[in-house]
Amino acid sequence: MSTLFEPYTLRDVTIPNRVWMPPMCQYSAAPDGPEAGAPVDWHFAHYAARAAGGTGLIVVEATAVSPEGRISPYDLGIWNDTQVEAFRRITRFLVSQGTVPAIQLAHAGRKASTDRPWKGGAPVGPEAHGWQPVAPSPLAFDERHPTPDELSVERIHEIVGEFRAAARRALAAGFEIAEIHGAHGYLINEFLSPHSNHRTDAYGGSYENRTRFALEVVDAVREEWPDDKPLFFRISATDWLDGSGWTPDDTVRFAGELHAHGIDLLDVSTGGNASGVRIPTGPGYQVPFAARVRNETPMPVAAVGLITDAEQAEKIVANGEADAVLLGRELLRNPSWARHAARELGGEVHVPDQYHRSV
Question: If you ran DSSP here, which 8-state letter would residue 146 be given?
């Protein structure tokens, strides 16, 4: 049997295969009003199609723990019960197809309040449903972004509480796995990296201080998340800044600490915290970062980044470079990628009864 289509168990949750969908924002929620941040028909159709296509685990896109934590005004959120009820429709369908539903809990930090990518993605103000971003330090992401407000210690503690409350709501919404977003230059990543964190208090300076906020969030979410359900953490393994930012060595060190704090799997990506850097992209270019964490720590990992064909994905898992692969753009192009890969590799995947005539 194909290694890619072997089940994978974390705590008491068994994922039917190693073909997973990473969080990918759809920028399709209402920006304000009573339905702000709640998933709509587009979200249901988008995720349902990938579940019907055989994807083993779907991580719902970055879902903000507060209104100011959204990347754009059109992002999903999970700060109220209206959103919880809307998510239940999605999780019920995913479970009915044998797919494990997961959700990424997020705060965008200094990269918040931007327009949708197809509108240019520029920062937006109150006249376009925007707001003032916040961050560890008053440092703009780039020349287009405004200078964020520096978070007070009191506000940092409040945000930890918002992650805690979001985890409680995610559980009520029917999610089996939660992922904390600590990557791509958003708030937790901003605290981790000396490139974006210039604080001089208990949340800045040393490695121990810069990782404090992330570990407080992990502890708060883990306390709410049941012991029988897994908790993931997404990390940018490097800022691509030649040692002046967050580094692969930091990632390996931190992976061990996250594991000790109850994280069950590290979702390994890179970049996003520094503008203008050159990233040497290519097929599977981020896989070595995941493989290093897997080989040097007790932490299971998922790999992501230009993984496109079945043989490539099979080798990554079979060779022990990662425990699973996350396919982003490829699943946007082909919602039934898992079914097609299973046919090619000789694996088995769930097929809806309605589709059996085409198998």
Answer: P
Contact 150, 135 (CB under 8 A): yes
Cβ-based neighbour number of residue 235 at 10 Å: 31
CA-to-CA distance for 210 and 189, rounded, in angstroms?
Answer: 9
Predicted pLDDT of residue 344: 94
What is the predicted pLDDT for the residue at 358? 55
**Which SS3 state, helix, strand or coil, does residue 311 take?**
helix
**E-strand spans in the chain?**
8-10, 13-15, 19-21, 57-64, 76-77, 100-106, 134-135, 149-150, 177-182, 231-236, 265-269, 301-304, 324-326
Query: Measured between alpha carbons, how far is residue 219 from residues 79, 223, 291 in Å?
Result: 19, 6, 26
Catalytic residue among 8, 27, 74, 186: 186
CA dist 323 and 222 (Å) reads 22
H or E element at residue 179: strand 177-182
Q: Is 355 a catalytic residue?
A: no
Question: What is the predicted pLDDT for the residue at 351?
Answer: 87
Give 122's Cβ-side CA count (13 Å radius): 7
User: How far is the C-alpha of 19 from the C-alpha of 195, rounded, in Å?
Assistant: 34
**Below-50 pLDDT ranges, the chain:** none
List, for residues 312-334, the tens digit of each pLDDT value. Answer: 999 999 999 999 999 999 999 99
